[in-house]
């Protein structure tokens, strides 16, 4: 099955939907995504014959960690992962298996009314060379998690379409074909992994995720093109170790009202 990278945003959706398999179960295997589209983890792109390449611990070398960005304003240095360091020296069988649990995660967008007000006018997010935080900030509340199981929460931001835009006559309009995109980075929430009980006890915020237009960024910021439209995505992974991410099932949630156009300066004076 060929899974497209960019699916249409469904307007008027009150809750997040799952963009990859909208008519099937809400989970999808990471290996499926890696095999059919530009990978979240470029170092782990699969060969045409499937997931065999992921069976070797050696596949978990430094490049994958460069894609898993923590809350600090720099990418997680491979050597600073503490007990998770030296993945290539650590056999996967030493990672404890997850217990079978029953959960039904649901995600609710905080400040939904504010996002909707921005969305009606065409949300703009300022990007800078030095990196700038999102406004409105991306915050969610999770329910339906297993209290004792551990989860990793992540975000990424992907292109919403293949167009470049311009602000003309007080409105946004298509101005041509999109510029090539830089490989997208997954931003891991700094509290990951944590128990379902811990996640559900608070609002989950990604206020330290920063947007930049610096294609040479070394800080782990999300690199975007100005005057292009993007869609933030939120992911829940039930796993007790970050090294399990490439082998895990991702539950993905997308809120259409959080779509935005990246700009270097606000265009709409409203």
From TrEMBL:
Transmembrane segments: none annotated. It is found in: Nucleus. Gene3D superfamilies: Transcription factor, T-box. InterPro entries: p53-like_TF_DNA-bd_sf, T-box_DNA-bd, T-box_sf, TF_Brachyury, TF_T-box, TF_T-box_CS. Keywords: DNA-binding, Nucleus, Transcription, Transcription regulation. One of its GO terms (molecular function) is RNA polymerase II cis-regulatory region sequence-specific DNA binding. One of its GO terms (biological process) is cell fate specification. GO terms for cellular component: chromatin; nucleus. This is T-box domain-containing protein. PROSITE patterns: TBOX_1, TBOX_2, TBOX_3. Residues 109-270 form the T-box domain. The keyword Calcium does not apply. It comes from Bambusicola thoracicus (Chinese bamboo-partridge). It comes from the Eukaryota. The keyword Acyltransferase does not apply. Pfam families: T-box.
